Each structure stands twice: as structure tokens, then as C-alpha cells.
């Protein structure tokens, strides 16, 4: 989601106006974007649940827990019911009984609860698929309070793909350096500041 372009608010803007601003951006365009932090997907087996999972859910279509996100999230979990496997903040993706699978994505909260109840009635063992945000690991620059992590697109020797760094990344393409800065994280979101030079393209994934 694009939040701003060259400090112009893009959260409630029409498509044509947004395109016009991007075209008038000049030799350097700076975008502030928000994206979901990279998820970790886990499958968790729960047995002898006595018909209840002991979790509190929020979110879903029409009752979003996070702005512009239709996910169903766990906001409270009874450890006696679920053990220590389910965590507060988990995004529910699917629940499966021994007979049937139920999709919990892009549904209302009421629909999600009904599907969970159905799965629990069908068998004493259910498997829940959840998504978790990866922990963001800050890398502090010793000379200042800013976070810095330089990365050349041709240099793959020192890449550590197991970690997500808060900081600034520089990708050099055809001799022109573009800047990508991970500013902060909030809940399941991360904010990135992209600076793109004229004549260069950047795919927002």
C-alpha cells in the first residue's frame, strides 16, 4: 500500500490523480509504502479440545482489526486449552478436522467462528494453519542513531536471507543507485521509504 509520494498523502486519493502525481515526480521519486511483514506459516495440531479452542478472535471482512486487512487474528488465548502453540497476534488461515478443511481467509468474523465450531464438532483433533510476522531485527549504525545496511545487487556473498533488517539498502542498476529504507514496524506491518531515480523502475512486492 502506497502511503505517500514525495510527502503527498496517498491514503485517500483517486487513481487518476495518483498517476498524475507520479508522472510529475521529477528526477527522483520518494515513496512511503506499507506492507505486511514477511509471514511464517505454521500448522498446529490440537487434540482433546472439548469443542472449544479457548481463543478470542478479532478482524475479518467488515470488522477489520488492522486497517485495510481482512485477516482473522487471535487477540487472546487460554493456555490451558491450546497449550503454548497458538500465540496472540497469529493470523488464522485454515482449520481442518479429520473430515474437512475450512478456509479462514477473506471471511467475516462470524463465518470464521462458525467454521471453527464445525471443525471442532467433526473430530477431537483439529489442525490450525496460522501466519506469523517475522521478528524485525534492528541493525544500528555505530556512528549515529540511524539503521544502515548497504547491499549491492551484484554482491551476494554477505547476504543473510534468514533475517529482516531495519535499515537502508542500496541497489545499483546500470550505475544508478536506488535507495530502500525500512523505517519501522507496527503490529503486522512494516513501513518502507523508497527513493527511485529517473529512468529506473522498482517493483513493489
From TrEMBL:
Organism: Adineta steineri
Protein name: PDZ domain-containing protein
Start and end residues of each PDZ domain: 1-37, 43-134
UniProt feature coiled coil, ranges: none
Alphabetized InterPro entries for the sequence: PDZ, PDZ_sf
Amino acid at each position: 500500500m502506497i502511503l505517500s509520494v514525495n510527502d503527498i498523502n496517498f491514503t485517500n486519493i483517486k487513481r487518476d490523480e495518483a498517476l498524475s502525481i507520479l508522472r510529475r515526480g521529477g528526477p527522483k521519486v520518494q515513496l512511503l509504502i506499507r506492507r505486511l511483514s514477511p509471514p511464517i506459516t505454521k500448522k498446529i495440531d490440537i487434540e482433546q479440545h472439548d469443542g472449544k479452542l479457548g481463543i478470542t478472535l478479532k478482524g475479518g471482512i467488515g470488522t477489520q482489526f488492522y486497517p485495510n486487512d481482512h485477516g482473522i487474528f487471535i487477540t487472546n488465548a487460554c493456555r490451558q486449552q491450546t497449550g503454548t502453540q497458538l500465540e496472540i497476534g497469529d493470523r488464522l488461515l485454515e482449520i481442518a478436522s479429520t473430515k474437512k478443511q475450512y478456509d479462514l481467509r477473506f471471511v467475516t468474523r462470524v463465518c470464521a467462528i462458525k467454521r471453527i465450531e464445525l471443525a471442532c464438532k467433526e473430530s477431537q483433533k483439529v489442525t490450525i494453519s496460522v501466519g506469523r510476522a517475522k521478528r524485525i531485527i534492528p541493525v544500528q549504525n555505530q556512528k549515529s542513531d540511524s539503521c544502515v545496511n548497504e547491499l549491492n545487487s551484484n554482491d551476494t556473498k554477505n547476504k543473510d536471507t534468514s533475517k529482516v533488517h531495519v535499515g537502508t539498502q542500496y541497489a545499483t542498476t546500470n550505475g544508478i543507485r536506488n535507495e530502500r529504507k525500512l523505517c519501522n514496524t507496527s503490529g503486522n506491518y512494516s513501513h518502507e521509504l523508497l527513493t527511485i531515480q529517473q529512468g529506473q523502475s522498482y517493483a513493489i512486492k
